[in-house]
Design goal:
about 160 residues; microfilament motor activity; ATP-binding; Kinesin; globular; 7 helices
Length: about 160
């Protein structure tokens, strides 16, 4: 398909990482690309600076390890394959280097994985931020918000 041809043209053996690079952007081509990536357990795809995640409804071995956090830490946004840790690292770096507040918008249907994604972002930021007592206090508060997020996330989930 168009997605595979474009990936090969760009020198990638995997399905296209960034849908902006499609020859023809259409709903059909976007869905085909996302499906190709999903079938290869590549659940994250960029469309420019936006990260699309497709819930695999299963654990993918090695996808969210401490090693994966180290792999994405300090890398440029497009340097490695799309991943929630790339987004989290870019957000963290913008906050630290530019001293600007950051916001990540996570949207999707019930059961799409929004709560899980927010927990992964918080886990990443917690792992890469400092170790001082003040920083630790903020990290503890941030991570302790997970049960609250869970309760909101599960309140309407029927899947």
């Amino acid at each position: 398909g168009t997605c595979d041809k474009m990936a090969r043209k760009l020198g990638s053996k995997n399905a296209l990482d960034d849908l902006v690079m499609l020859d023809r952007i259409s709903e059909e081509n976007i869905v085909k690309c996302l499906q190709n990536r999903y079938n290869q357990d590549e659940i994250y795809t960029y469309i420019g600076p936006v990260l699309i995640a497709v819930n695999p409804f299963k654990r993918i071995k090695g996808y969210y390890t401490e090693g994966k956090i180290r792999e994405y830490r300090g890398k440029k946004f497009y340097e490695l394959p799309p991943h929630v840790f790339a987004l989290a690292d870019d957000t963290h770096n913008q906050m630290i280097n530019k001293r600007e507040n950051q916001c990540v918008i996570i949207s999707g249907e019930s059961g799409a994985g929004k709560t899980e994604t927010s927990k992964l972002i918080m886990r990443y930021i917690s792992a890469v931020s400092g170790r001082s007592a003040a920083v630790q206090e903020v990290k503890d508060k941030m991570l302790s918000s997970n049960p609250i997020l869970e309760s909101f996330g599960n309140a309407k989930t029927v899947m």
